[in-house]
Amino acid sequence: MPRDQITDRILGLFMEHRIWGLRDLKSRINQPEAYVREVLSDIAFMWKNGDFNGKWELKPEYKERDAGFQNTTTVAPEVAESDGDTPGPQDYDDIESFDAKQE
User: Which of 2, 32, 41, 62 is the most buried (most CB within 10 A)?
Assistant: First the structure.
């Protein structure tokens, strides 16, 4: 995907949420992590400590360009790691229904 398209998609995601994890952005735009990180470094900064350590936030100069970025105050929900389509106990309300599915 061309760099300008990825940049536009990332900026669109920053209109939804103020803070994003790299893994979450990567999964939403479906591009290699190294490429996403490269584009991110141009338009965002990574928090090095505090509650958002390791998360990305748009640089102030981009926030000032569009009022849509200033209204976002939430942190993007994290994507859960998936090990395939095999359901785990957390996928069922109780362990009995999980055991029944396994039989």
Answer: 62
Topology of domain 3-102 in CATH is Arc Repressor Mutant, subunit A (1.10.10)
| pTM check: above 0.85 | no
Helix, strand, or coil (residue 75):
strand
Backbone phi and psi for residue 24, each to the nearest 5 degrees, phi listed first: -70, -45
Q: How far apart are CA 57 and CA 74, in angstroms?
A: 11
Using an 8 Å Cβ cutoff, are 22 and 34 in contact? no
